[in-house]
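Renewal narrative, Specific Aim 1. Our central claim is that a sequence can be written position by position from structural information alone. The example that follows is taken directly from our test logs and has not been curated for this report. It begins with the structure tokens describing the chain, in the order in which they were read.
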């Protein structure tokens, strides 16, 4: 695993791991629900399926406890925050409720309708989403500023009317 693998997993920030199928070791599939990125693809859907080839490690570490059972991992409701490579070369995916540890040789990416997509396509969709998202806070600040000015103006007019 390399840093580029970790960077790819950061695409799934705020995504929910909602299904795990297959075998470890072997071919394992992870279904990640992340609607804001999935909406960038047609037809629209809610999730992506990542097929991990020759997956040798898949476990969840929560409160010092190692969980390998897929059902128990899903019960922890892992929401992805970020990913990094740790000392032994494994991928560590930090989640709200713990961390997922993975090691695999390769992966394929599918939309929830079964259509295969490339890593570049999903990274481009993520980039477009965040590029457009970054403009929203400045618009929100502008709106709040205008609102505050209008409130102060209303108060000023009210006070002037009371003084007359």
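The sequence written for that structure reads:
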């Amino acid at each position: 695993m390399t840093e580029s693998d970790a960077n790819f997993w950061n695409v799934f920030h705020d995504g929910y791991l909602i299904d795990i199928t297959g075998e470890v070791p072997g071919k394992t599939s992870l279904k990640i629900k992340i609607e804001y990125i999935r909406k960038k693809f047609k037809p629209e859907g809610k999730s992506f399926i990542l097929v991990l080839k020759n997956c040798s490690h898949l476990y969840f570490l929560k409160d010092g406890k190692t969980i390998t059972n897929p059902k128990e991992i899903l019960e922890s409701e892992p929401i992805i925050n970020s990913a990094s490579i740790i000392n032994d070369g494994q991928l560590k995916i930090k989640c709200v409720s713990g961390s997922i540890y993975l090691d695999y040789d390769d992966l394929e990416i599918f939309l929830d309708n079964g259509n295969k997509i490339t890593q570049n396509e999903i990274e481009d969709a993520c980039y477009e989403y965040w590029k457009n998202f970054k403009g929203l806070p400045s618009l929100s600040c502008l709106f709040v500023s205008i609102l505050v000015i209008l409130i102060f103006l209303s108060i000023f007019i009210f006070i002037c009317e009371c003084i007359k």
